[in-house]
Amino acid sequence: MTNPREMLTAYGLSPKKALGQNFLHDPNAVEKIASIGVQSADEAVLEIGPGVGALTEALAKRARRVVAVELDESLTPILHDRLKPYANVEIVYGDILKQDPAAVMGADAKNYVVAANVPYYITSAILRHLLESSAKPRRLTIMMQMEVAEKLIAKPGDMSLLTVSVQYYAKAQIAAKFPPAVFFPRPDVYSAVVRLDVFETPPVDAPEAVFFQVARAGFSQKRKQLKNSLGSGLHIETAEAAALCITAGIDPQRRPETLTLAEWAALARAWEGKSSAAI
Ligand code: SAM
Questions:
Q1: Is 147 near ligand 1, meaning CB less than 6 Å away?
Q2: What does the pLDDT average to over 257-268?
Q3: Taking the CA of residue 6 as centre, how many other CA atoms within 13 Å lie in the half-sphere pointing to its CB?
Q4: CATH topology assigned to domain 4-198
Q5: Which one of 64, 82, 158, 275 is most buried, counting C-beta atoms within 10 A?
């Protein structure tokens, strides 16, 4: 039995909306994510939210090792029974956002990938948690809400803080799209699998902490000109923020969503130069 509705019923359970439980019930969708997620039989995979184990099983058949972190302990009997034949699977019960990926992956912390159909309400938090970790995955293959997927691949003109943050760490592409019908229960939204190939070194030249300080400040006020949002976010006068933009070669009247990563980096270098000159 692999149908999630039947499995849950057989174990006396039902899907928990509060935990974002929309289980994959289309075997083709499961295979598709697993085939994008695992590129070689030697890979170690971190899965987030195995649910009733459909993707976990497909990953276990392809990868050397699968570590799956699940918050809902009531799924234990299902996962135990379904995954018993796979000696390469470990289930860790807990909140992924409170787990250190290095500790979870142990010996594979320096070389692992992520493949998951995650709870949509914490997609951005999961991305931040993993990409900002000292033990970053090499690649992430994640099913998410289409709208969020589109944000991750956005280009200057439509950038958000999430776009800038993710593109600082990884090359993002939409690898597959799915309708609500591949899930039980059906979500209200369309979904996409995003593949993120994590850079060994960032694509732009700026210290990470300063880059994010400046980007966060730049996006701190919606639909404002850069000089205003930067001024308020960095706690400096608007004129000073405008001068900073000019030093970085950027028109202070531009809107934050139009800047390229290289321009955020130029702003970060200008801000770093200014802060160190003031010391
Ligand atoms: N991977 C399964 C599938 O594709 O059928 C289930 C996907 S369902 C969208 C999300 C899963 O993440 C659920 O099993 C849910 O219990 C689990 N989950 C929710 N919040 C979590 C958290 N903070 N940490 C780990 N797992 C979580």
A1: no
A2: 98
A3: 5
A4: Rossmann fold (3.40.50)
A5: 82
d(CA 63, CA 40): 7
Mean pLDDT of 171-192: 97
Asked if residue 185 has a cis previous peptide bond (ω within 30° of 0), the answer is: yes
Torsion from C-alpha of 117, 123, 128, 133, nearest 10 degrees:
-30
Say how many Å lie between the CA of residue 150 and the centre of ligand 1.
22
pTM of this prediction exceeds 0.90: yes
Distance 106 CA to ligand 1 centre (A): 22
In the chain, % helix, strand, coil (3-state, to 5) comes to 50, 20, 35
The CATH code belonging to domain 208-278 is: 1.10.8.100
Nearest to 19 by CA among 86, 94, 83: 94
Which residue ranges make up each domain of the chain? 4-198, 208-278
Is residue 202 classed exposed, middle or buried when 0-12, 13-18 and 19+ CB atoms within 10 A define those classes?
middle
